[in-house]
Amino acid sequence: MKIYNTLSREKEEFIPLMEDKVRIYACGVTVYDYCHIGHARSAIVFDVIRRYLKHKGFHVTYIRNFTDIDDKIINRANQEGITWDTVAGKYTDEYYRDMDRLGVGRADAEPKATEYIQEMIDIVKGLVEKGFAYEADGSVYFSVDTFSGYGKLSKRDPEEMIAGARVEVDERKKNPLDFALWKKSKEGEPFWESPWGLGRPGWHIECSAMSLKHLGESFDIHGGGADLLFPHHENEIAQSEAFTGKPFARFWIHNGFITIDKEKMSKSLGNFFTIREVLDTFDPEVIRLFLLSTHYRSPIEFSDEQLHESETSIDRYYSTIMRINDFLEKDYNVKNDFSNSGKIFKDLLFSFRDRFGEAMDDDFNTALALGHIFEIIREANRFLDHKPSGTKDRELLLLTKELLSEAGSVLNIFDRTPHEWYLSLMKIKKIGLSEQDILEKISERQDARQKKDWGSADAIRKELEEKGIILEDKKDRTDWKIKVG
């Protein structure tokens, strides 16, 4: 298994620091607003990484934090005339609501920065005592000149780092790149008591304190969005390794941006879509598939067209499962050997687990893994087109369902019945009919057909089709689906 390590800029063999145990820390959100689809990508990427590692038999400890004290939170509180902790609480709840809908599992611990103030103060005191930090007018700064490894993650020269950090002019700093570990609180701002007076923690020290507390001084994987690489993660390395004298995280994983018209999606640019906005139009499973259809390190161009393609792909899966279920409902007692098409399909199925695993072992290549999944779906339909009719064929289709379910559980897609999928589409596409309405129309049409009133039967089919409902006549019943695409 190989993972691309941002620290080395190479794929490296992944061997955990503790046998069979993997410890992961992923930077969470600053809770001052609704999450956008870029936040969803990072959350889903690390959700799948955790799921796959567990699938491989590792015991995974996964930590994802909340930054619940920050300038943005304070500004939002002032704008709305409410307290900062009310803002943080509201948007933490909204984060959970969005992520639960997207199928993102809860981390093993989800610490909030304000719960670890004392741990942060202890680290800052230690850095001051060791000569890595200095106090200036009630604030404490990390001195980057004292840490020889500064810049090893971002690989930037000092001029690039100053530009990337958008450094504010501050005469109290010895070096423009020095960053705040502890900030003196301004009048009206929240504060905590410290050896340097009333203040609050800097952004970077929060993640060091929480990861050290939950995962120890050295752990396996640290990650987040590519926008966090510098300065946040660079600063985390500096303060953590200066404090402990030990390597911080062995692997650094960063997911790529989501772009709109080739420009990074961000709140500062105002070109973003909140998760809840996208969920008004598309099923959560569609969003997961869209985000996993591109390798996590590559940028994704966000568009309705791309989402509609993902919706069509998800529908192809559920339509295939409907066909397989129809076949399995029949009573086949004929013992047959594999036909030529059956032998080809069997070989594809029997190699699937290895091919899926190889894709995921190659730096969590979900795009390739999904390619293997949809190859199975395509070949399953071809196999069904050849009208299978025996016990061997039945075994192959049972195995197809098993393999698709197993792979789907790693990616957390394909976890519903076709009926549940179409009920979800019915709500999202605002069909204007309930399932009961549809069933009554089907019953009316069946009565018309029995009376050989083909005109009325065709009229009902057309009426439903105009509303986006497709009828499929089977030997003993009529099924309905929602039109996609």
Kindly describe this structure.
With 485 residues, the chain is an alpha/beta fold. It has three domains: 2-280, Rossmann fold (3-Layer(aba) Sandwich); 304-420, Four Helix Bundle (Hemerythrin (Met), subunit A); 431-482, no CATH class. The chain has 17 helices and 15 strands. A four-stranded parallel sheet has the order 4-3-9-10, sandwiched between helices. A four-stranded antiparallel sheet has the order 5-6-7-8. It has a three-stranded mixed sheet with strand order 12-11-13, with helices on one face. Helix 6 (203-215) packs across helix 7. The longest helix has 26 residues, at 304-329. The chain is elongated and about 90 Å long. The model has no long low-confidence stretch (mean pLDDT 93).
Kindly list the characteristics that best describe this protein.
single chain, alpha/beta, Rossmann fold, Four Helix Bundle (Hemerythrin (Met), subunit A), four-stranded parallel sheet, 17 helices, 49% helix
Q: How confident overall, as mean pLDDT?
A: 93
- The name of the CATH architecture of the largest domain is 3-Layer(aba) Sandwich
What amount of the residues lies in strands? Answer: 5-15%
| CATH fold descriptor of the largest domain | Rossmann fold
**How is the biggest beta sheet arranged?**
4 strands, parallel
Assign the CATH class of the largest domain.
Alpha Beta
Q: Return Rg in Å.
A: 27 Å
Q: What is the assigned CATH homologous superfamily of the largest domain?
A: HUPs
| Uncertain regions spanning at least 5 consecutive residues | none
